[in-house]
Amino acid sequence: MSAGALPSVMVDGRAAAHAFDGPEARARLARMVEDGTPKNTDRAYAADRRYFRSWYEISGFGEPELPIRADILIRFVVDHSEGLDPRVDAALVASGVKAKLGRLRISTISRRMAWVATWHRSNGYPSPLSGGPVQEALRMARKAAARRGFRPTKKKAALRETVQTLLANKAAPTAAEIRDDAMILFAFATGGRRRSEVAEARIEMLEEVDGEYVFHVGITKTEQEGSTRTVPVAGRAAGALRAWLGIVGASDGPIFRRVERDGRIGTRRLSDRTVARVVQRRAAAAGLDPKAFGGHSLRSGFITESGRQGKNIFDAMQLSGHKSMQSVVGYHQAGAALSNEAGRLMDL
Hints:
Blueprint: H1 13-19, H2 23-36, H3 39-58, H4 70-82, H5 86-95, H6 106-121, H7 133-147, H8 160-166, H9 175-189, H10 195-200, E1 206-209, E2 212-220, E3 223-233, H11 235-248, E4 257-259, E5 265-269, H12 272-285, H13 295-308, H14 313-320, H15 325-336
Antiparallel strand pairs: 1-2, 2-3, 4-5
Helix pairs in contact: 3-5, 3-6, 4-7, 9-11, 9-13, 13-14, 13-15
Keywords: Chromosome partition, DNA integration, DNA recombination, DNA-binding
GO molecular function: DNA binding
Pfam families: Phage_integrase (PF00589)
């Protein structure tokens, strides 16, 4: 994040420009902002910022200045929902900010408009999505996409049997396979940890209790100031983790680390993308469609399996860290569906 962009993180960016005129003060603010911004969020915001600026300039509106006019934002929604001017579309692809010609998915349009709203709010301007014509245009674009057959794509939930299939099950697994087994079981058994939480998990966050572990969750997507929650790493997951930690041989640092080609255990943590790739690689090796699975499969799989086994949804949410029933109840109900006796009335 560049120093020139720093005012955008303040409540009132215009006032912040005066408070951080000096290079030393701005450098200190830069460190705080960089440490306080999740890496995934920072990458996504950077990509959305590049795209919006490119579209704005290529469309002939000049250099974007806040606040962005409502009619321009509505044009952004309409262009990407109904189809861009072919010359603009081709220029965006040629510039590298757009992968291919054609409409954007409504989920991508919504995410980029969410970035525009964040950009406004963080500079002291009201969000263009807080009521009014821009929000209405986006709402209608979502309805149009749904009527055209758009459905959000979700990775397939990895249930208990699927997780078992993903494990190496070899008599003499390699260090990387031992790590990957431990990582898969850790992510699933601790409540379906997000892939970023798995990648950022550290040995210091573990507490050994009677041969098993308690994991202190720390920072999560919904708890950016840190969580005081603890979750169990028990049973088979504890055994797999103990085997991996025995190879790591360290008392601090990342739990899940690189294994070098010569077999040495590195000191750097894995990236969150590597967590997803491990799941996909194991799925492919087991004869499953790797594109159907990802890091989120372990999270949704935990909730779905808990419903399948008749576990209390609130107990599952306590481990997963879900804050909203709305986001979790669908997975839980899907797992419990075949146990619903009302679905077997014709069998009586």
